[in-house]
Design goal:
Layout lengths: L5 E2 L4 E4 L9 E5 L4 E4 L5 H4 L4 H6 E5 L5 H4 L9 E5 H10 L6 H9 L5 H13 L12 E3 L3 E4 L4 E6 L9 E5 L4 E5 L17 H13 L4 E4 L5 E2 H21 L3 H6 L3 H4 L6 H9 L3
Helix pairs in contact: 5-6, 7-8
Length: about 280
């Protein structure tokens, strides 16, 4: 599970996504302080960040509330944890039980988490010597865009429409034109995998919003950084597939087969996980 840092621009780097649903963790460094984007899914995941990076960070920004983005942030003790209001409320509700192996299994049995999440949580639990997952409630919350000055570097913390869950936020680094967008490209997954779905209108609004930001590189949490032109093609592809399902009674794979070749080739690497959700588009 070795992971090496990837430098994206003058001020932005990532610890790349990995096994057990580990997402990209962003590091944004200004001349005076730095920001971490998402805390990873466990103590061992967050611990892959060098101590100098952690101690220099004034803030850790959460993109949303899901376990793989927030569990590691419990071990960020040197600064403030920041999220949307909705994310903070959801994290607070996670502390109503003990998230050990038995708790994770119980949460799955009552459909609180899907099988996909249960399996990854249990794998990560073993790597952390079976210590229960912890959920730290954010110190700072916001519902509207907030601007942070890191010292000759401006970061905008932006609410983003998403099918995936409510309360998602993105982090835009203006000088570098890098936009950390979390999991907004994914469907609603807070249910069994055969019930994941997309909301077409939300997807359209999300696409328009993120492309209105003057970014050259988009950092999605579970894929390699995406150049703007590739993301534009991918969003067109996914929207066309959903429209084919919703308005032409096609399956997602049938709708994809009718697309131009340039759209078919615009892949992030996890499309097969998403096509079932496209088949259930609303």
């Amino acid at each position: 599970m070795k992971q090496d840092f990837v430098k994206l621009s003058k001020h932005c780097s990532i610890l790349p996504y990995g096994d057990n649903d580990r997402p990209n963790i962003g590091i944004i460094s200004g001349s005076e302080t730095s920001i971490i984007v998402d805390g990873g899914n466990s103590e061992s995941h967050f611990g892959l960040l060098p101590s100098a990076v952690i101690s220099n960070a004034e803030y850790l920004f959460l993109t949303h509330n899901h376990w793989d983005h927030v569990c590691g942030s419990s071990f960020f003790s040197s600064g403030k944890l920041v999220s949307s209001v909705v994310t903070a409320e959801k994290i607070g509700r996670m502390n109503d039980m003990v998230w050990d192996a038995d708790g994770i299994e119980s949460a799955y049995q009552v459909n609180r988490i899907p099988e996909f999440t249960r399996n990854n949580m249990l794998c990560e639990l073993k790597l952390n010597d079976f210590r229960p997952f912890e959920f730290r409630v954010p110190d700072i919350t916001c519902d509207t865009e907030a601007v942070f000055d890191l010292g000759n570097l401006t970061c905008r913390y932006i609410p983003i429409m998403s099918c995936h869950c409510d309360g998602q936020m993105g982090v835009y680094v203006e000088q570098d034109k890098v936009f950390f967008i979390g999991d907004i490209l994914w469907p609603d997954m807070d249910r069994k995998q055969d019930e994941w779905f997309y909301d077409l209108e939300k997807f359209r609004m999300m696409s328009e919003q993120i492309l209105s930001v003057d970014a050259d590189v988009y950092v999605e949490s579970h894929a390699d950084p995406i150049p703007r032109n590739m993301l534009e093609l991918w969003l067109r592809k996914m929207q066309s597939i959903m429209e084919g399902v919703k308005y032409a009674n096609k399956s997602a794979h049938e709708a994809e087969s009718l697309l131009p070749q340039e759209l078919k080739q615009s892949n992030l690497g996890y499309e097969e996980l998403l096509y079932g959700a496209c088949d259930r588009v609303v």
